[in-house]
Amino acid sequence: MADDELEEDITGNGNGIKLEDFFHGQMDQLAADELLNQYEPDNYYLVRERVITESSEKPDEQFCISLHTRVNGQPKKVHFRIRQSYDLCVIGGLVFHSLSELVTYYTQVEIYPGGRLEHPIRPKHSCPSNRCVMAIMNYTKSAGTDELSLTAGDVCQVQHKNQDGWMWVAHVKSAQSGWVYDGMVEDLNSPNYDPELESCEFYHPSHREERVEELKSRPTGTYFLRPSAKSRSVSVLCVNCNDAIKKFEIERIPGGFNLSGKAFRTIDEVIQRYSVKYIDEKNEVKLREPLLRRSHAASNLPQEDIYAPNRASSTQIRECQLAAEFHCLFPKRRSRQRAWKRQRCILHRRQDENHEVLITSSSEVGRQPKGKPKGLIALEFAHLYPVCHGAYDRPHCLQLVIFNEVSANSTPPDVYVLAADSQAVLAEWLAALKPLCKCSKVCNHGQRSGHVRHVSTLEVAVKGVRNLNVSCKTAFVAVHFNGVVVAKTRSNRREQDDDSVLNWDEQFHFEFFPECIHTLSLHMTRRKTPKTTKVMKHDVRVSDLSLGRTSDFKVPAAQDKLQLCFSVRRVGYAVLQASKDYVPIRDIFLKSKDDPTECLRALAEVCTSEDLTYLARAIYKVFAYYDQVANLLTSLLLREIQSISSESEGVLFRTTTIGTSVLEVYLVTDEPMQFVRHCLGEMVQEIVNSNANLELKADRLLHSSGEMSDLDEADSIARRNAARLIELLNSCMRRTLRHCQASGCPAILHQVSVACQQETTRRFPQATARVLSAFFFLRLFCPALTTKFRQVFGAELHQEVSPQVLRSLQLAAKALQLFANQSKTMREACMELVRPFVCENTDLFNQLNACLTASPDPVAPLSAGSSADAPSSSSAGAAAAAASSSPSDLQNISLTFELASVHDFCARHLDDLRNLQTRSGSQNLNTLIKATEFLSNRLSNETNR
């Protein structure tokens, strides 16, 4: 069955299975087995309420599905527990809004290998699916809380109960929900419960003798209704007939009630009829006045004692929970339209020490959400999957994936996507969720010692496709882990000389790659929407990837000559759980004497070009944790300036070194990206919104336009395009200058630029603008318009970007590159049209150079004794928030992983480091080698324990 048809069966009105067809009320497993034995093992089933005692395992699992099926030809009875939280039902990690929805779903999907819920066993009498309580006192809820106001005699259904005595109930008559205390209500244990009868104010389910004695003292015609002791479907109407109590049986029939052979739709019709006609014709008695339920004696608990556990519970919840506003994307089968919704997510601990995420309606800042939850994610079943840019066209995303464990992977997983408002909120939630989700629990390979965790990172580079059909103008590639999308390509462009080649050249980096992921898939489609037909698909088993090496793939399609090119690199390393074990490694890089960056530069020298990017990323995060990024960049780049001879001045800041690699890692963080969006955003928005084609090559214009046949006309259009491009670039550079003059440049980038500018001017007096061109234009502005365009501006774009817009942005980047180098000669003939932009804005370039290299507060290079004992304030704040619901050392978990990654680099290149130390005789390198050997031996011993 298609997903949309199954979704319609679950959510549509009237298509689901009704509760009275399968629910049998409270029943133990032995009684359920005896009932199932009366039927053939042909997928007969029933749903029952478990008999829970104080010694019961998992008392929050209230309901159970009992199924009689066949396994390997032999009859077998299987029982599946269902947990209820509020009015949500959870089974195998899947969340349903009712028992009827759950049962309807598993009539279409296997709940057990070879078994579905096909034939319901109908109970003899209808039973309620929730425990019912009745209020014994009047209560008005406190303002600003989720409590429920009650009147004595109100009947409610219990949907969730806390250990502290508070329960979430739904009013039978008004359908309102809220919290009540169990001292304010009494349990209705009668099996004769009927919601319609309970809504009557003259219905008395208990205290029968007291009500009969009270009825005798009332006037003739006074009446009340009570359950019958003989049958669940019969109620008794007790009437005072001249001081004698007469009883009239009212039988529950399909669609109404039966009294003395007459059918009535409701109890109110019974009362209305016999209020005008004699119910006792012999004594001529009519129903006159009901005997209403009155409140019983108030609970012996004082009011302050009632609220004491609630206050204690609220304090406990606030200490362990994490709450934030997210844009949420729910699984498709839960909603007809899978759309983003603003919701509030709350992380808290359950009674069984497991965690769950409650999704409620969005509330005002500083106020608690009201109403029942919109969804629930049980983290004991959830896998935390990574998300790269482009997967959902939203920044700061995380996704929780729940595979249907009951159905043995026969159904697609449920994917909950949460998009945070900022990177800080995302980092806080990721730190809190990683130790709690299932994927984090199964990747602990050192289970016997509990001290070692194995961590993997993965990088996927999607290069391009060859021999593409000319009719296929665009194509996209999506990366899937175990069938769950985690990344999508964002930009695509054809080669200028060969229309059959389409290049993406995009890289996706996945940190903390879960060990539970065993399959990597690449799907190529013609469009970005998920319902488009796949052009080709290729699966790669993660176990086949060599650790630390890049695996290149050229995948041919089955039907034609298509060839998809991509590469995958997987890096794995072991991590000691305690962060204090990595203090020696940390101190070597942060507190080295004499030359603080000596060990880092030596490690970069022996690393391969591929390892250099990973090393730079790990080192940056370690120094960022201690707020030492500016000092690190300054020390590395100053050392690079000093190491270049006067004859090699042309390669300054142009080659890939450890200094420029760390700089590139910093330039893709939030603060520099915000600076780029402010400077270039207006120009980008104008080009994208107008779908501008600013092509400068006349032959490309002539080739792309079928209506244009004259080369002179194409030259004229190219000149008009150049004039418009120059106008946009002039406006963009003036805006950048104003923003920099208003101190809008990122503080760290400004400080590093000033220090490097001073040293560059001293060493190379003729290279006065090398820092401006290399740092701001060539490594920040130009990549933002080309390779990193979607990463920078993707969140602000609300439409698909056409290839001609991407080409226009590429030409703008080329013009900025010429402007940065102050080139007077153009390598491409078409770029001669933008020469006026370079030549006429020399003063503007000098003003930018002076503004961005003006000296702020002096920044000292990294020196011995730099403080590494306390993290920065922002890091500490996020860590403290995450530590509230995590293991004892969670606040340092990210730092521990990065230091472990650095140790892995040192261990893999230990022989090269020894040779380098032998040649140089460096004491710092000798200390690094000893610390690496000590940690490697420690890891080996802990893993083998």
TrEMBL record:
Residues 128-190 form the SH3 domain. Gene3D superfamilies: GTPase Activation - p120gap, domain 1 (1.10.506.10), Pleckstrin-homology domain (PH domain)/Phosphotyrosine-binding domain (PTB) (2.30.29.30), SH2 domain (3.30.505.10), SH3 Domains (2.30.30.40). Keywords: GTPase activation, SH2 domain, SH3 domain. The keyword Glycoprotein does not apply. Residues 611-821 form the Ras-GAP domain. One of its GO terms (molecular function) is GTPase activator activity. SMART domains: PH (SM00233), RasGAP (SM00323), SH2 (SM00252), SH3 (SM00326). Pfam families: PH, RasGAP, SH2, SH3_1. Residues 322-438 form the PH domain. Residues 22-121, 179-291 form the SH2 domain. InterPro entries: PH-like_dom_sf, PH_domain, Ras_GTPase, RasGAP_dom, Rho_GTPase_activation_prot, SH2, SH2_dom_sf, SH3_domain. The keyword Signal does not apply. This is Ras GTPase-activating protein 1.
